[in-house]
């Protein structure tokens, strides 16, 4: 059975840093354990993981550390896209050999205006170089960051060439019309919206769940929405998760997520980000936390200071 046969929520896991801005692996592992315990899979090295501020060697070592800590690789969907083709191949091969559920792949994002032929060549080179029937690739469409959209024609071509390998996509465009069109055009293809606020529209069309930034802070609530057995139960869950999503996405997302984790874990170390990002200022932070508390938000059993 496909790892994406049932709707799932994946969190692009925020990355904790030590005073010297090296990755705090113990806090990372502890947070990964909390997320999986709350019903979420782990999209390590996503946008909100500050993945493009991490070196290739760091990403390899962190994936190894998470697996060595006993976290089931079937829960892992690491980001492996890179501008440099050899790095994308290395990261994707590493994820496949670790037994991950799949590899979430950005297109190469420096050169703009590249053709579908060029993008097809990039993905094909990675797939052929890894050379494993066990590899599962999910495309990552976030054109507002990459400047490199993944067209429906390219998706169709990749599915035709690699039907057992190219199995899904994360649509972070924020364009519901695009998400809906992919769901209708590619039945059986694992389409993950990037916001839980879209799930009540996406699930009836066959969405595979969501890969959402705010799954870092409300994984249990999103998992409950995915499990909801009736339209009424789904609507109730949707109201809760969408309200929190709207509050957080109004802020700089990565610093806000880290500030929320820091507050509810009572662990200020979580506020650190790598430059060029900056932390939320005190007034912004206090206002956001006050808003969440007023909404009755909490992060149950959060203890992520140590692995």
Automatic annotation (TrEMBL):
Annotated pyruvate binding sites: 211
Residues making up the signal peptide according to the UniProt record: none
GO MF annotation: an example: 4-hydroxy-tetrahydrodipicolinate synthase activity
The enzyme's E.C. designation: 4.1.2.51
Active site positions, chain numbering: 140 (proton donor/acceptor), 170 (schiff-base intermediate with substrate)
InterPro entries: Aldolase_TIM, DapA-like
Entry keyword set: Lyase
Sequence similarity: Belongs to the DapA family.
Protein name, entry field: 2-dehydro-3-deoxy-D-gluconate aldolase YagE
Gene designation per UniProt: yagE
């Amino acid at each position: 059975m496909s790892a994406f046969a049932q709707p799932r929520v994946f969190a692009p896991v925020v990355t904790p840093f030590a005073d010297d801005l090296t990755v705090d692996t113990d806090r990372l592992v502890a947070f990964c354990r909390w997320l999986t315990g709350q019903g979420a899979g782990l999209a390590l090295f996503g946008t909100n993981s500050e993945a493009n501020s991490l070196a290739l060697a760091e990403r390899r070592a962190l994936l190894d550390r998470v697996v060595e800590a006993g976290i089931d690789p079937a829960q892992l969907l690491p980001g492996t896209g890179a501008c440099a083709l050899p790095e994308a191949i290395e990261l994707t091969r590493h994820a496949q050999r670790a037994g991950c559920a799949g590899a979430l792949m950005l297109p190469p994002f420096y050169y703009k205006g590249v053709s579908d032929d060029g993008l097809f060549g990039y993905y094909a080179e990675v797939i052929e170089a890894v050379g494993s029937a066990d590899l599962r690739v999910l495309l990552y469409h976030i054109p507002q960051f990459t400047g490199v959209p993944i067209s429906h024609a390219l998706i169709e071509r990749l599915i035709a060439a690699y039907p057992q390998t190219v199995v899904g996509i994360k649509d972070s465009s924020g364009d519901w019309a695009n998400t809906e069109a992919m769901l209708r055009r590619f039945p059986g293809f694992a389409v993950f919206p990037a916001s839980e606020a879209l799930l009540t529209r996406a699930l009836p069309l066959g969405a595979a769940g969501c890969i959402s930034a705010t799954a870092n802070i409300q994984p249990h609530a999103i998992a409950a929405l995915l499990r909801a057995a009736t339209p009424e139960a789904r609507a109730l869950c949707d109201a809760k998760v969408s309200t929190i999503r709207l509050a957080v996405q109004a802020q700089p997302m990565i610093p806000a997520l880290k500030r929320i984790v820091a507050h509810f874990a009572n662990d200020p170390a979580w506020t650190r980000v790598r430059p060029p990002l900056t932390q939320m200022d005190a007034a912004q932070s206090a206002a956001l936390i006050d808003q969440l508390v007023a909404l009755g938000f909490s992060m149950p059993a959060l203890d992520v200071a140590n692995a």
